[in-house]
Design a protein that fits this description.
Elements lengths: L2 E8 L10 E4 L5 E7 L5 E7 L2 E8 L2 E3 L10 E14 L9 E13 L10 E9 L2 E8 L6 E7 L2 E4 L4 E4 L12 E4 L3 H9 L12 E3 L2 E4 L5 E7 L7 E6 L4 E6 L8 E4 L2 E2 L2 E7 L2 H6 L2 H4 L15 E6 L1 H4 L33 H13 L4 E4 L29 H10 L3 E7 L4 H18 L3 E5 L14 H16 L3 E5 L14 E4 L54 H10 L4 E3 L4 H6 L1 H9 L4 E10 L3 E8 L5 E7 L4 E6 L9 E8 L12 E8 L4 E6 L4 E8 L1
Parallel strand pairs: 23-24, 23-29, 24-25, 25-26, 26-27, 27-28
Antiparallel strand pairs: 1-7, 2-3, 3-4, 4-5, 5-12, 6-11, 7-8, 8-9, 9-10, 10-21, 10-22, 11-20, 12-19, 13-14, 13-16, 15-18, 16-17, 17-22, 18-19, 30-31, 31-32, 32-37, 33-36, 34-35, 34-37
Helix pairs in contact: 7-8, 9-11
């Protein structure tokens, strides 16, 4: 039940200096201090367990053709209160989430020099046991519209923390993470990253959120944003001389950052904090800062385990396009007269083969990419119109294949590649969604590969952010779930719109030879804002054995790939490899068949960013538990206590482990499977090979 206490503290009108105001978390360990400087500049700081993790930091904005919102403020009143609430997610890691915090809203004003100036700005602070957050509120006032040229919010770090970071980029998060001290970011960027950053990069010390940090005293901090709505995505630009981050918003084509109409509230600026690494993994702070579910009937929103005609295209075994075409012009090209090149993956025979395997092995859906006309003329062309999202290739019988899939008890999962042309997708979205409804599709994977059109826009600008949410809302109206790729990284909006069942927005499996450490960092960073469609489950690591010309080697063991279904939570999970590769190792594939995608309880047992993660979870629809762990390039051993199991019951444990000689590079497909009866008083020794892991199912007897 929600409990709320509210106190309004009036202050003398005209006061431009206050000694300071404070709000503390319910357990008293997180403390936020606010004050105005002598010039009326708002500042804040954050302490955790007695340590100042964010030093006094300035707040405010620069505006176009208006006085800056940086100083001259006075405090008119302060609202305070406490909230103790719980809410039930439609899907998630836990069946119930606690939302417990103290808050303080500082109501401020400044003398107006003219009727077109902004005179009122409030700042709302919240203190949770697992961190702090604040946002700016602009009440309705005489000046209804204004343009932000810069957000000047600072986060002054309390020391030269260790950071796990990716470089600032307005268009992609598809990087591997670098571990360094804050003071070393500039050097690492200039040597390693900046040559790969898109031309929209703004600074050699710019980084993206979610940013994972560790203090010399062993505390864990995470900087992020929550509830990104009608605003550009925030990057952090580091002043490495003072170790102070400054908010850097993704710009619009004219260089400004955001257009605001009052009343308005910005996204939250978030500082998560924990005494252990697992505290960050278990935190629900980002979701708690988002609005409650806006969809009245959520019965149609269901977690999805799927396969797809995708990995064979990514690896080069087959192709998205139907034919080879020179001087291609979609408006005049006649596919009925074209000669197929014979490598098109989304053909009737191949799709039926996938449907059969997916249905026989309990999958919910099958993703088909490259089904629609236009793939001969899309990548890098920056054309406004390529895809219409409704016209299939000649060898893809959309009627027959959907009927065949439904007869087997599964659905097809739609794919919409926009090629970065947002205006074209907006024009075709209604008819594209209507086609899905007509054929029984209830989920779509949308893609935004390439530069955003119109030229000058970026993937993370205010305009693009608004488009992504508009697509999700329209999909919800038609009872369609959305898995957005290349869109802005999520910030907890899946609480409000739970039909957002997946996003990419990070380096996933399609980067075939990424470091084994990558999957031990993503749950601390990208996944804090929402689930990722990482596409795990690769069983054939030497890609040259089935995709001629591809000399990549997947740097993981099979046990590691199984464990990802545990360590990287998503209600949308793909079994990404080819049916024939799973057929070779059906005993290992059994875990993918068994593992749920929705949980009633999750326990992060031990972890360290960049090194390893171990987690246990309870199935929402049974009494069974599952556990898993992944490691980086280092071999690792641990003892898994089973105290999470029901103490009054016995379980059959099926353990999927790395073989003694397994290694992500030299022997990645070596695994062993053992079974034993266990109870909550037992412990299981587990060993993870380099780049390896383990996965365990606990079936209640």
């Amino acid at each position: 039940m929600k409990k709320l206490a509210l106190i309004l503290l009036p202050l003398a009108y005209g006061a431009n200096l206050i000694a300071g105001e404070r709000v503390a978390s319910p357990d008293g360990e997180v403390v936020v201090d606010f004050k105005l400087s002598d010039s009326g500049q708002p500042t804040y700081s954050v302490s955790f367990m007695g340590e100042e993790i964010v030093r006094p930091s300035r707040m405010g904005f620069n505006l176009k053709e208006k006085d800056p919102l940086t100083d001259g403020f006075r405090v008119d009143s302060i609202s305070r209160g406490n909230v103790d609430d719980k809410w039930t997610p439609v899907w998630g890691e836990n069946s119930e989430i606690s939302d417990r915090y103290s808050y303080m809203v500082v109501h401020m004003s400044k003398p107006l020099e003219g009727e077109k100036e902004i005179g009122k700005m409030d700042i709302e602070f919240r203190a949770y046991d697992d961190g702090a957050a604040f946002r700016y509120l602009f009440p309705e006032q005489d000046c209804h519209e204004f343009v932000i040229t810069d957000e000047l919010t600072e986060m002054a770090m309390g020391g030269d923390y260790t950071a796990w970071w990716i470089p600032g980029d307005y268009d992609t998060q598809e990087y591997e993470y670098t571990r360094s001290r804050l003071s070393e970011i500039r050097g690492y960027s200039e040597k390693k990253h900046m040559e790969n950053v898109s031309q929209s990069s703004f600074s050699p010390t710019g980084v993206q959120t979610s940013l994972m940090l560790k203090t010399p005293s062993g505390k864990y901090i995470n900087l992020h944003e929550a509830a990104l709505v009608d605003f550009p995505a925030m990057h952090l630009n580091l002043d490495d001389s003072t170790l102070t981050f400054v908010s850097w918003l993704t710009p619009s084509p004219d260089g400004t950052k955001a257009r605001v109409t009052t009343p308005f509230r910005t996204p939250w600026r978030v500082v998560m904090a924990g005494d252990k690494a697992t505290d960050i993994l278990a935190s629900n702070l980002i979701y708690n800062l988002n609005d409650p579910c806006a969809i009245e009937d959520t019965s149609w929103i269901t977690p999805v385990k799927y396969m797809g005609v995708w990995w064979e295209m990514i690896t080069g075994k087959s192709a998205w396009s139907y034919c080879d075409a020179e001087n291609f012009d979609l408006s005049t090209f006649d596919y009925s007269k074209a000669a197929p090149h014979g490598r098109h993956g989304a053909n009737n025979e191949n799709v039926r083969r996938y449907i059969d395997f997916a249905a026989e092995n309990g999958m919910d859906q099958l993703l088909i990419e490259g089904w629609n006309v236009g793939w001969e003329d899309w990548f890098g062309k920056e054309k406004d119109y390529v895809f219409d999202f409704v016209t299939p290739y000649p060898d893809f019988d959309i009627d027959a294949l959907n009927e065949y899939a439904h007869s087997k008890g599964i659905r097809l999962l739609m794919h919409h590649e926009t090629s970065g042309s947002i205006p074209n997708y907006d024009r075709h979205m209604d008819q594209a969604y209507d086609l899905m409804k007509r054929y029984g599709y209830n989920a779509v994977k949308s893609g935004y590969v390439g530069n955003i059109l119109p030229k000058g826009q970026n993937h993370y600008s205010q305009w693009a952010v608004n488009h992504y949410l508009r697509a999700v809302k329209k999909a919800a109206d038609k009872q369609i779930m959305v898995n957005g790729h290349e869109a802005v990284r999520p910030t907890g909006l899946a609480r409000t719109y739970p039909n957002m069942i997946g996003n990419e927005s990070a380096m996933g499996t399609e980067y075939q030879s990424m470091s084994p450490a990558h999957v031990t960092i993503l749950p601390f960073t990208r996944l804090k804002g929402g689930p990722m469609d990482f596409t795990p489950g690769i069983f054939r690591m030497d890609l040259s054995t089935f995709a001629p010309g591809n000399h990549e080697h997947k740097r993981a063991t099979i046990a590691n790939q199984l464990a990802l279904y545990m360590t990287m939570y998503s209600p949308l999970q793909m079994a990404a490899d080819l049916p024939e590769h799973y057929a070779e190792k059906m005993d290992a594939f059994q875990f993918i068949k068994d593992v749920p995608v929705d949980w009633s309880e999750s326990r992060y047992i031990d972890a360290e960013p960049g090194q390893f993660i171990i987690v246990a979870r309870k199935d929402k629809n049974s009494d069974n538990w599952f556990a898993g762990g992944v490691t980086n390039e280092d071999e690792r051993s641990a003892t898994l206590s089973l105290d999470f199991l029901d103490p009054s019951a016995e379980y059959e444990a099926t353990i999927y482990a790395d073989a003694p000689d397994a290694h992500y590079d030299t022997n990645p497909e070596a695994y062993v499977i053992t079974r034993r009866k266990v109870a909550s008083s037992d412990a299981i020794p587990v060993r993870m090979a380099p780049g390896g892991g383990f996965a365990i199912s606990f079936r209640k007897l």
